[in-house]
Amino acid sequence: MKEYLFVLGAGASQPYGYPTGQQLKWNIINDFSNSTGPTYDLLRSEFSAEVLKGFAASFKASKLDSIDAFLRMNTDYELIGKKAIAANILQAQSTSNLDPAGKDWFGYIYNRLIGTDESRLSDPRISFITYNYDHSIEVQLINAFKHSFNLNDTEAKKSFVKIKIHHVYGDIGDFSSPLNHVHKINEHFHFENNTRARAIEEAAKSIKVMYGQRDEVPEDVREMFFGKEIYFLGFGFDKLNIQRLGIDWKRFERVIVKASGFGLTNAEKASHIQSMGIHANKIVFGHQTHDCYHFLREHFV
Q1: In whole angstroms, what is the distance from residue 238 CA to residue 272 CA?
Q2: Most C-beta atoms within 10 A of its C-beta, which of 34, 220, 243, 292?
């Protein structure tokens, strides 16, 4: 029976209400530059307006595509940056939409891989490596198990823990913690004002943005690639992200990697293939106009 591995970038969380790298960048810059928004208000109690505006001005002037890239070279802003990331992701998670019409790629693969097949509760044959900080995959899996098979919370979690999910750069905190877990099993959980600052503080601790904090991907995570059909969804193919995986594609004689290619030109796809060190006949990119959902409809078998 086939096993499947999904490698997720920011574009995979975007349909569910989370920011892409570019959107996160401009959310932070605009909030800090204009002295507005919940992120600014929360951080203003800890940092001066001058410092926050200086951060935004420097980030904007850097022309770098992501806050991660900016913080790698501007270590003085590490604490502000991590808290800004945490605040934005927590805010997005508290208002996220897990049922986006016409874009729900998770629902698409869930119905084809698990659906109402009870045998998959004990042997789901699906795993995820994600570069995202959010818990959208965890929340959707538990909700889907619970409501597909009429399970209680404890039973749903027993099936959930059989699925391997690795956050390469950390996440917004312990998924089981009520403080950071902004979704209850059945409903959205919105932070009260007096707990948001604590939630951001805790979430920021689990985010890895600096090179030294980002350990090499463990060998058992690399082993997740073997014997599986591999799909890259919403992945930006940043060279450092590729290097961090440390995959020697020459070891995969028969593998065919499939990757969504929303917004990518042919030249950019060729560049990403070169960065990966994979032979061009071992990877298939989706169409430039296809998001994750429409890519899977064309390429998922």
Answers
A1: 8
A2: 292
25 Cβ contact partners less than 8 Å away, ≥ 6 residues apart: 59, 65, 66, 67
Smallest CA-to-CA distance from 262 within 225, 237, 228 is with 237
Confidence at residue 246, expressed as pLDDT on a 0 to 100 scale? 84
Q: Which of 266, 256, 301 is nearest to 287 (CA)?
A: 266
State residue 8 phi and psi, 5-degree precision.
-110, 135
Single residue among 94, 117, 140 that ends a domain in this structure: 94
Residues 224 and 146 both lie in one domain: yes
Element containing residue 79 per DSSP (H, E): helix 78-94
pLDDT at residue 179 is higher than 70: no
pTM: 0.90
Provide the Cα torsion 18, 22, 23, 26; round to 10°.
Answer: 150
Predicted confidence (pLDDT) per residue in 22-73, tens digit: 999 999 999 999 888 777 888 888 899 999 999 999 999 999 988 988 998 8
Residue 77, domain extent: 21-94
In a domain, 233, yes or no: yes
Would you give the distance in Å from CA 295 to the centre of its chain?
18
pLDDT tens-digit readout, 186-230:
333 344 555 777 888 888 988 888 555 556 678 888 888 988 999
Q: Are residues 26 and 134 in the same domain?
A: no
